[in-house]
Design brief:
The chain is an alpha+beta fold. The chain has one domain: Alpha-Beta Plaits. Helices cover 22% and strands 35% of the residues. It is built from five helices and nine strands; from the N terminus they run E-H-E-E-H-H-E-E-H-E-E-E-E-H. Strands 1-3-2-8-5-7-6-4 form an eight-stranded antiparallel beta barrel. A hairpin with a 5-residue loop joins strand 6 and strand 7. The longest helix is centred in the N-terminal third of the chain and has 17 residues. 32% of the residues are buried.
Length: 180
């Protein structure tokens, strides 16, 4: 399943430190939780959506309600919690592992249907919300070469582009299973 966490950050003075915490401490802690397989962070280059997005591949909702997840910082931004706003969490139906978005690519998310992504020559992955906020109820995602980003700027306000902040982390368990 795909677990998404979206938010914006309200304190410019501590935003860089918060990003370091999230990328260098929180993400590695989360990927070590049993049931987490991949984790990657993004920053929006579009308007009309939360600034930050994390996408994780997990086994299911029980991972997020487990003690190990809470002990390793899941659902908590520590001392930065007071600066987090526009915070949304969703669990989407299984599309396999979330795609690893490289530095020369952008993640494309759309809630209005697959057609805008198909028109861009992408192969959208359809996601259905099954737990947590369940909004948007459906989303389609794809990856786009960064050089083609100008093609999207005027196509739809429902399309949001995200630049990777981190490379995709993969759990050691997932790597060993994939190699077998």
């Amino acid at each position: 399943m795909i677990y998404t966490v979206e938010c914006s950050f309200a304190d410019l003075n501590s935003e860089a430190e918060w990003n370091d915490f999230y990328s260098l401490e929180k993400l590695p802690a989360l990927i070590s939780v049993s049931g987490f397989h991949t984790s990657q962070r993004f920053k929006s280059i579009s308007d009309g959506c939360p600034v930050y997005l994390a996408i994780h591949t997990i086994d299911g909702l029980d991972v997020l309600t487990g003690e190990e997840y809470r002990q390793k910082g899941g659902g908590n931004f520590a001392r930065w919690q007071q600066h987090i706003n526009d915070w949304h969490r969703n669990l989407y139906s299984d599309i396999g592992f979330a795609p690893a978005v490289k530095d020369d690519e952008l993640l494309v998310l759309c809630a209005s249907g697959p057609h805008p992504l198909i028109q861009m020559g992408l192969k959208p992955l359809a996601m259905q919300a099954v737990a947590l906020e369940k909004f948007p109820e459906r989303r389609w995602l794809g990856t786009l070469p960064r050089k083609d980003a100008q093609l999207i700027e005027s196509t739809s306000e429902d399309i949001h582009l995200y630049s990777p902040i981190t490379e995709q982390l993969t759990s050691a368990r997932s790597l060993s299973t994939a190699q077998e």
